[in-house]
Design goal:
With 247 residues, this protein is of the alpha/beta class. It has helices spanning 2-21, 30-33, 76-93, 111-114, 131-136, 153-160, 169-175, 189-201, 203-220, 223-245, and strands at residues 26-27, 45-46, 65-70, 102-105, 122-126, 138-143, 165-168, 184-186.
Length: 247
């Protein structure tokens, strides 16, 4: 704990120095900006990630799994999330859908993640050549992120492929999709399980949520939109620098 406290102090000092050194600054979400300690953090622009909607788009073979989770599987928030899904949410789902299946796809799964494959209805693939195949292989994407901030690219990619998504309040705070319309949001294992059960039982609901999510990312989360926001930050920073350098 003393090591973490010391590291926190150094990181805060470094972040504050960087914010003072540059005329223009940006961060990926409001939620992340709230973790800055700089007195003028409100001037930090929000420039979220985008998703390549030409690369990630609906299509592929018929789904073979009920649920899918993707991500770098040596990243602690992803490990925590998939263990939460497999150990706390999936057993509740299986009270209604006894053989509900889960695909876990992503590079470098550690021992705790690999051990989940002892369940005959859980598949852990490790690295795959084309992550789009993992998305297309399932009916529902689930990312019950419990720790970490940032904007989850996995959610943008799944939505861009037309998958209905279930996620946590924490993750959707950065995505900003409308709960109940473009995405389903939950706080507890019971709420996650209830959303999943509803989606698995109702093809029309899966289609409605999936299409609303697809529209959301195409209209507001493509790389073109993100680039526009970043260009505006750069232009404002250049103007501020010019003002400061003027005689």
């Amino acid at each position: 704990e003393p090591v973490f406290r010391a590291e926190t102090r150094r990181l805060i000092a470094y972040e504050n120095l960087m914010l003072d050194l540059f005329d223009g600054t940006s961060i990926i979400s409001v939620q992340d900006r709230e973790h800055l300690y700089h007195p003028q953090r409100g001037r930090v622009a929000i420039v979220p990630n985008g998703v390549d909607t030409d690369h990630f788009k609906p299509g592929g073979a018929a789904p073979r799994y009920d649920l899918v989770f993707t991500g770098n599987m040596n990243y602690p928030p992803n490990i925590d999330s998939v263990l939460y899904l497999a150990q706390r949410v999936l057993p509740l789902v299986r009270r209604v859908v006894p053989e509900a299946s889960l695909l876990i796809s992503g590079v470098d799964p550690g021992p705790r993640v690999r051990a989940l494959a002892a369940d005959p209805h859980i598949t852990v693939t490790g690295r795959v050549e084309d992550i789009r195949e993992a998305y297309a292989a399932a009916r529902v994407f689930v990312a019950p992120m419990q720790i970490g901030t940032g904007l989850q690219n996995k959610l943008l990619e799944a939505m861009a492929m037309g998958l209905p998504c279930v996620t946590s309040v924490l993750a959707n705070n950065a995505v900003g999709a409308e709960p109940g319309q473009a995405i389903l949001v939950a706080d507890t294992p019971e709420e996650h399980a209830a959303h999943i059960v509803r989606l698995l039982a109702d093809a029309d609901l899966r289609e409605r949520i999936g299409q609303a999510g697809l529209r959301y990312v195409r209209e507001g989360m493509g790389w073109a939109k993100a680039t526009e926001r970043l260009e505006a930050v750069l232009e404002e920073a250049a103007a501020e620098h010019a003002r400061c350098m003027a005689p």
